[in-house]
Amino acid sequence: MSQKFALILLVMLVLSACVGTQSMLVEDQPLKGINITIDPGHGATQAYDSFRIGQTGEREEWINLRVAKILSRKLTLAGANVLMTRTKDRDVSLGGRASMASGHHSDLFVSIHHNGSVNDPSIDLPIVYFHGSGDMNPASVDFAKILIDSMRAEMSFQQQRAGAVYSDHLIFSSGTSVLRNTIDDMPGVIGEGGFFTNPSGEGRLKSKAYNKLEAEIYYKAILEYFDRGIPSAMCLLPDSLEYIDLLRPIEFELDDGFGNTFFVENTFKVLQDGVPIQSNWDSNSGILTATPDSSLEKSVSFQVFARNLQGNAIHPIPFKFLTKAGYEWFIHEKWFEAFDEAEVLYSQVIQNNALHNLDSALHLYQLSLEIQIVHPKARIAEEKILALLIKKQALIEDDLSDAIEAQQFRIREYYPD
Ligand SMILES: [Zn+2]
Question: Which residues surround ligand 1, an ion (CB under 5 A)?
């Protein structure tokens, strides 16, 4: 073979290899563009934690990290942008883990743990936790169910059938820190792939081959979850809005995860501050229109619920807006601006019984004190607050005696003559 011919052959081989690799990458990257946070639980607790350890000395944090690393590699190869909250045996704060996940704009948060029991070494089963109530957190439950089903089908446990999906309120009354602090941004779960306090469980969890199997289970569950499409809602009000007008309808544009508007009928729901409000779905435009309720709060939040035809629910990320009262409240930076504006409103309230100005005047006097404790007109502000509460009770014929008494006590005790 001449040298020239050999060179041409080599170039052709290299070129075809490149083309082959490229097309393989595109086909084999089902998670391209998806951001996932993998959180290996605990880390570097050996010095003080005598609980997270099996009978032969294997520690939970080591198992968590091994499984997470294998999983992370698989997800990265599939095209996902993976963030690991730790890659070494070191401790990361719970708040730090959650803020890393939010900063990564994650589409899913997966915290990898293994379980222990101090009083019963025979227990060995899988558990997947989601945050809060299933009704309010449907997307996390969707993923949790896929994960627990494959854990039970393909991993080994002493109580194979007993594994289940549970709320993290069963662990702590307010749930777990990492799930509570990520729920406003993404769905998430804590997976507990068996008990290291069970002797045969510990034996399995120590094995690299079994860690690999567990990572494969997570990987396949994540693939299946994203394969069903991630439905989403977008609020059509501009971000630049100073405050929301609750007298007008509010519109949400829905996508089923495939650029379409195919959703299961009767799964549409809009909550305003956790309470259902009237809404109307138009499948042609893909717009869900809701009618807000009036509110005396400084801010309101809306959450949208619906389920696509593949069975995935929208993760109900809250859309938060200032109300008019909230806007007035927050635009003041100087105590005297708030106080002076309160004085104008106060005289209108006293002269014309202008009830609509009364709450604003109350807020503004309180705000002046919040911005600058004991400003030069603090006592006047406190007395005006008392006068407004008495006026409000007379005007709306409501019992405000507790608030009035508290304010009288405040002036008497904190501002003695
Ligand atoms: Zn744990």
Answer: 41, 113
